[in-house]
Amino acid sequence: MMTHNGVDTYFDACRITFRDRPETHRIDLYVAHAERAREDPVHFYRLANACLDGGSIALWHQGVSLALGRLHETTRSRDARREALGRLGDWSAWQDRGWPTDPTDLPAVVDRWWDGAEDLSGKTVLVSDLGGHGDAIRWLRFAEALYDSVLAPIVWAVPGSLVELFDYNFRHLPRMQAWDRDRTNAHFDRALHAQLLPRLIGPLPPFVRRSAPSPLTLPQQTIGARLGLAWACGNGLDHLERSVPLRVLMPFLWQPDIEFYSLQVGEVAHEASIYPRFHMPDSPIESFTDTANVIAGLDGVITVDTAVAHLAGSLGVPTLTLLPFPSDILWGFADTTPWYPTMRLIRQRAPSDWLSIQPQVQQALESRWWLQSTNVHPVHR
User: How far apart are CA 364 and CA 276, in angstroms?
Assistant: First the structure.
């Protein structure tokens, strides 16, 4: 751990780096909190995250290093440590989450939370998660391992547009089924929050490639590649920050040896019609089964941080995911992710600087990255 003088040096570096910047007030506030409570790691995590939001990875690492060297005696400090370690690629800390007890967080269709030890004989377990579609797809990484660990009927709450795809991929697990989490006409005995799966199973089970029910069949290929493209996020507080203006990607749409297929849905999907070499779906994409079928017929996918990224990654399709600065903790700092072995990550060099991704995307296309991804096979049970 840094000495007392080392801590002061860190505080000074934070102030100097963000002097005369829009983040100045926020940085000064977090420095002041950390100065007053030097042994509380929470203030160092907050200061580090503020520096990261301002564009300094180095100051984030220094702040997190200081925080990790302090005692973590509160739930808040352990939660902050878990997120920091996740960003560093260490998912083992997610195993120390406490079992929930607050009934106000309990889904209305469930009697009470499972405590991890109670005998589940004769009971049904609802795997609950209030995250978005991408989160729901990500946590399915744990499905087979959970099935082997919990010998009771398991119902997985997912958005309605994922139910069909879930049922197709887990039909080999007779005690497991999907449930549209927007429905209320159901009852379950116990609930298990998806974010507790690492505590129950371990940090990250082996990758299992998912399948599309009816992969898109395209004419015999005579060009270099067929790539899917999703450039905008439709929801979330930071959906605008995670979306790439299509004009930024326009230079790549004219490459003679690549055909692009739109995977975009929502308000901006019509933008693809501006570009004559941009293929639109023959029929509307109305569910994630439709999207999976299209993706499975392509050579690769380029997408922003939205559910399409998780879907393509879970299907084992070569995927370039375009990330803002800073990105979600899930994506860490590397150019690969243990969550999806066929995925490469391309990042903004600075906050809001989408133009900085252009050379990286061009390099990936020139290297024919879709031919270099890890060969991942499905696991048959």
Answer: 23
Sign of CA dihedral 329, 334, 337, 342: positive
Helix 307-314 to helix 288-296 angle (10° resolution) is 50
Q: How far apart are CA 51 and CA 27, in angstroms?
A: 7
Supply the DSSP symbol for 340: -
Q: What is the pLDDT of residues 264-313, one digit of tens each?
A: 988 888 888 888 878 887 778 888 999 999 999 999 999 999 999 999 99
The secondary element (H helix, E strand) that includes residue 344 is: strand 343-347
**How many other β-carbons are positioned within 10 Å of the β-carbon of residue 16?**
8
Residue 254: how many other CB atoms lie within 10 Å: 11
Each residue of 284-319: b (16+ CB within 10 Å) or e? ebebbbbbbbbbbbbbbbbbbbbbbbbbbbbbbbbb
First-to-final CA distance of the chain? 48
CB 128 within 8 A of CB 197: no
Query: 333: which DSSP letter?
Result: S
Q: Which helix (H) or strand (E) holds 150?
A: none
CB atoms within 10 A of CB 189: 17
Task: Residue count of the chain, please give it.
Answer: 381
Q: Distance between alpha carbon 226 and the CA centroid of its chain, in Å?
A: 24
> What does the pLDDT look like over 320-346, one tens digit per residue?
999 999 999 999 999 999 999 999 999
Kindly list the distances between the CA atom of residue 98 and the CA atoms of 37, 114, 135, in Å, as whole numbers in the listed order: 25, 12, 20
Helix-helix angle 41-53:75-87, to 10 degrees: 40
